[in-house]
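#dry-run=false #mode=assembly
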Amino acid sequence: MTDAQVETILRQAPQPAPPAALRQQLQAAIRLEPAAPRESPSPLLARPLWKRWVPALAFGLLFLGCFIVLALQTSQWLELRRQHDELRAAAATVDLLQQENDRLRREQIPLPSPSTARTGQQELQSLRAEASQLRPLTQQLATLRAEQQRLQAGAGDGTQQTVDPFAAQKERAQSIACINNLKQLGLAARLWSNDHNTNILPTDLLLIRQELNTPRVLTCPAEAGKTRTPSPSWEQFDPNSVSYELPSRHPSEFEPYTVYSRCPMHGHIGLTDGSAISGDQKPYTVMEDGNLMLRRRPENNPNP
Amino acid sequence: MSDPAIALCDRARSGDLDAASELVSLHYERIFAWFRRLCGHDADAADLTQKAFCKAWATLHRYEGRSSFSTWLHGIGYHVYVDWLRQRQPATHPENRWWLNRSDDRPDPFEQIADKETVSHIYALVEQLDPDARYTVHLHYYQGLSIAETAEVLDVAASTVKYRLREAIAYLKKRIEARPLPTL
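#status=ok
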């Protein structure tokens, strides 16, 4: 028997007959499910698009928000770190600046200590007292010299007196040197006041020793070697060698007619502007508020 | 797929009982015959047929029309039969001579091809095949499903169906040839 024959036999197999009532039973047992609307999509697809994507969008927005917050905090942290580094660097330089400041302070001209200033003040007071005592003697000396000159000029008969032919020139030179001293004194005082950012000139000559090259300028040439001995150096300074007076109590650069220094021998005066006026001009001075001021001579008082 | 079946399915899904009754009328005989050949009892076959149709109505909304309604119904019936087989006691099957219960008027193969005993023997040998081959022969030859439809019902590949059919035919031929000639 061939395969085809076998298949034919199988295909033509008889079909068992169903029971007579089976059809009615099957039709009676029909239970159809409620029809689901095929037109409507699934509940998930029926929702609006934006509602379907809300969970994903919400998560995305949350992630984005976290990322933004993290970025802001990171930028703030970096800024704080930069400021911290700058402050640390600045703090490191503060110590250096402090050291430099201390070094500069040490290198500055040391101001006299209170004890030194007190001692100098006492010496100044003693000098002023001595000067007030010597001032009348100086006037007597000037009178005696004038008398001597008169006598020398009038004595021509029989008296063999030694007359210095160059005395007048010497006195003239000494007077000019004295004026120069007063100028140097005024300029030194102004230098000191500029360095110390003040307009008040110092009334203590020791304060301007740095500005004066030598203390010899403090001795009037007319007294040098006679009644006073000029100090050779500041280390060997002798207060008794000072010839000049500082009559004003608060000499100011802003008051150029304030008398800063005065020579009791010649009458020369030095002003706060650094200039000097010869005593031959008979400058008229008055005391105002503790300061000796150069003023115009009043008309009713032509004489000094 | 036949157009009337699609229309009837759509009407049945909409709740049309007449359409559902029509579908029962079109397919219940074939389904019953299939179950009758498999299980061997009219009562069991009727019960299985009723279960299959009940399940079909319950899952009619899942029928998408990708295959014919007959194929889809056979698929449901196959699973109903397998579940029924599992729940049965593992007793020996009674002798199943379903080929003796004929209802159709087709030409008698006994008369055309071979003698009656040979044909009966062939049908009996088919029942002795292993279950997979037996189901394949029933669906393809007895129920008239195509290779693809048989594969879809059994959820196997078409090549598997072909292999099983080839092996079954070879087995049947071999057994028939080895069968002693009937004594006169």
